Amino acid sequence: MSETDPVRRNSSSLILEIQGLGKYFSEFELSDVTFSLEKGYVMGLIGPNGSGKTTTIKLIMNLLKKDRGEIKVFGLDHVKDEKEIKNKIGFVYDENHYYGVLTIEQMKKIVAPMYQYWDEHLFQKYLKEFDLNPKQKIDKLSKGMKTKFSLAMALSHQAELIILDEPTSGLDPVFRNELLEILYFLMQDENKAILFSTHITSDLERIADYITFINQGRVVFTSEKDQVLERFSLVKGPNYLLDSSLEKQFIGLRKSSVGFEGLTADLEVISPAMKEKMIVERPTLDEIMIYLVNRTRMGVR
Amino acid sequence: MWRIILKDLMVQKSNIFIIIFLCISISGTMYRSPGIAGVQLLLGVYFMLIYANSYDFKYNGEIMINSLPINRKEIVLAKYLSAIVYALIIMVIIIPESMILYLFNFPGLTGSIQAIVSFLGIVVLLLSIYISIYLPLYYRLGYMRSRWGNFISMFVIFGLIGAMGQLIKIPAGELKTTNQGLEQLTAVLNGYAGPVIYLMMLVVGMVLLVLSFKVSVRIYKNKDF
Amino acid sequence: MNIIISHMSGEPIYQQIINQIKTLILAGDLTEGEMLPSIRQLGKDLRISVITTKRAYEELEREKFIYSVPGKGSFVALQNCEARIENKRKQIEEMLKDVVKESRLLNLSLAEITEILKNVYDDMTPAK
User: Fold this and answer.
1) Which residues between 44 and 103 in chain A have a beta carbon less than 8 angstroms from any beta carbon of chain C?
2) CA A47/CA A58 separation, integer angstroms
């Protein structure tokens, strides 16, 4: 089910280009990761925990050294032109790596001058909007506030690529909604792009334009989100309908005493007569991910 | 890059040890014996360096720093320069304070400009040796495991100082040795060596630091976070 | 302009947008030359992907309901309303032809066909 990259239309509008990326660890291997992101769009990176999402992001940011492959950001090599690229990248990570013993104000004094286009006015605006006290020690902030602080920093230097790695894990739906609002607002500017990695796919159901699904270090697919949701169907029906030919059409099946539920990418193959007796629904990203992951786990490709 | 040094300085605010230490050093040591004062400065830099590194470790700050628009060479340079900055800060306290005590004829203080020059010379050498050993180890082994490296280099340095300390007690001229090196060393420790020696110490120190820097950069460039 | 979409209905979202905008235009709620929200604004307001709104607008443009001016936005096109309504009627007529053909196979009378039509209509009308 691997998919060739649908985004590589206009090279100059590509903010992120990853080609054949590979990294070898003793217990895990990321291999042949390929996908791109054009400016003006949001790419969701989904996959179960440990699938390689964070590794991919670290490789983009050159926090890890790649073993194979090519990464271009804004058309530039991500290692050779590291500084120039990072000037225009805003990052929000899962763990807050700021120096907790310092205050927000102090941390800003260190980081802000390192960026070429720091917008102090905008930063202050975000602090106010997020209700953050600049004199507060970062240690004393709640997880949500730390993430908001990271966000304020990431958005205050005219970044064109915003990279978020699990920014909402451990945070309540209210905050997740606030974050989405902010991202929607950002995307009014068609020169920006967002790479959003998460295992909470409901966050992406709405805003993502593209989805790249990574599992066990490999890209399972990278497509337009709408196409992904249209390609798969969630089918539910009575057990007696199941025979070996029908079962073959399913990527995954969940059988219970009161019926079955399955994911299929081949809805057309099932006869209309059969379909009459079943319920066909659009699956959520979660469901797609669950079925695909379980299929791989069982050794079926 | 200077901002990274600022970061290291900002986290020092709560470094009690250095404050206590600097207070203790207030005794015009520089004039009593430039050698001992040099060691005191070294200890001061050691405290500050370890303290800053402990915070880098605690918060895993390198991940954030490396995500900023800065390259790895600059990050390493900032660490080396920060050690020098610490030394300068301590000197800015020790030197004027000693001079004032001297001017007020605090008992036991001898020497003058020579003492300062001697002190500086010793500082440059000791600091260079210490930093040149510790920092590459720090980058190679990480914060936790490099701490023993600190102690080892300290032992080595103190051992040398101790040995040299014995020589202080022997006034120049009476040292029955043809070893020019030892004579020069004694001259330095007692505060009246010639400028050439100091120049040599400076050069050796610089060379050590540059070599160490190159090694550290190579190690750091290959690090994965 | 009000657009309400349902994520549950099973109908693709871009299709819902197309249909609703078409209805608004045909009913006169959106007048000729009126500017539509940008695809990004619409995406934000409906909380959906920009690609979805883009697709809807592209389809509407293809069917000549709207036109786009690069750099400015999308606008309601001059509608030949009567022609459109006439077209739609013709389409419905064709569909009814099929219905009659099928019904004849079962020998249904006009009254029976009308009864079925009434039932279907009632079923599709949301209860008040």
Assistant:
1) none
2) 16
Which pTM value belongs to this model? 0.83
Residues in chain A within 8 Å Cβ distance of C44: 184-185, 187-188
d(CA B52, CA B50): 6
Give the pLDDT confidence of A237-265 residue by residue, as tens digits.
Answer: 888 888 888 888 888 888 888 888 999 88
User: How many H helices and E strands in chain C?
Assistant: 5, 3
- Chain A nearest CA to B145, separation (Å): 21
May I ask the CATH architecture of the domain C13-76? Answer: Orthogonal Bundle (1.10)
Residue A118 and residue A25 share a domain = yes
On whether both A92 and A207 belong to a single domain, the answer is: yes
The domains of chain B are located at 2-221
A158 shares contact with chain B (CB less than 8 Å): no
Cβ contacts of C52 on chain A, cutoff 8 Å: 226
State whether A99 and B61 contact (CB < 8 Å). yes
The ipTM estimated for the assembled molecules is 0.86
Mean pLDDT over B65-69 rounds to: 95
Quick check: is A75 in a domain?
A: yes
Examine the domain organization and report whether A218 and A267 are in the same domain: no
The count of domains in chain A is: 2
Task: State the first-to-last Cα distance of chain A, in angstroms, to the nearest integer.
Answer: 8
**Do A169 and A123 belong together in one domain?**
yes
The domain locations on chain C are 13-76, 81-124
Residues of C in Cβ contact (< 8 Å) with A225 = 49, 51
pLDDT-above-70 percentage for chain B: 72
Q: Does the distance separating the beta carbons of A114 and B59 come in below 8 Å?
A: no
User: Could you identify the residue written with the tokens 């006015």?
Assistant: A121
Does residue A185 sit at the C interface (CB-CB below 8 Å)?
yes
Asked whether residue C109 carries a pLDDT value surpassing 80, the answer given is yes
Touch between chain A and chain C: 3 or more Cβ pairs under 8 Å: yes
My answer on whether A185 and A278 are in the same domain is no
Q: Are A32 and A180 found together in one domain?
A: yes
Say which residue the tokens 């060479």 belong to: B73
Interval A71-106: pLDDT, tens = 999 999 999 999 999 999 999 998 878 998 999 999
Residues A263 and A176 in one domain: no
Question: Which residues of chain C does A188 touch, with a Cβ-Cβ cutoff of 8 Å?
Answer: 40-41, 44
Nearest neighbour of A86 by CB, restricted to B63, B68, B222: B68
Residue contact C49–A282, C-beta within 8 A: no
Residue of A nearest to C52 (CA): A226
| C10 → closest Cβ in A185, A210, A281 | A281
Of B6, B60, B69, the CB nearest to A97: B60
What are the DSSP calls for chain B, one per residue?
A: -HHHHHHHHHGGGG-HHHHHHHHHTTTTHHHH-HHHHHHHHHHHHHHHHHHHHHHHHHTTHHHHHTTSS--HHHHHHHHHHHHHHHHHHHHHHHHHHHHHHHHTT-TT----HHHHHHHHHHHHHHHHHHHHHHHHHHHHHHHHHHHHHHHHHHHHHHHHHHHHHHHHTSPTT------HHHHHHHHHHTT---HHHHHHHHHHHHHHHHHHHHHHHHHHHT---
A41 → chain C, closest CA residue: C50
**A93–B63 C-beta distance less than 8 A:** yes
Q: Is there a single domain that holds both residue A184 and residue A96?
A: yes
What are the pLDDT digits (tens) for A17-29? Answer: 999 999 999 899 9
For the cut 90, the answer to whether the pLDDT of residue A149 exceeds it is yes
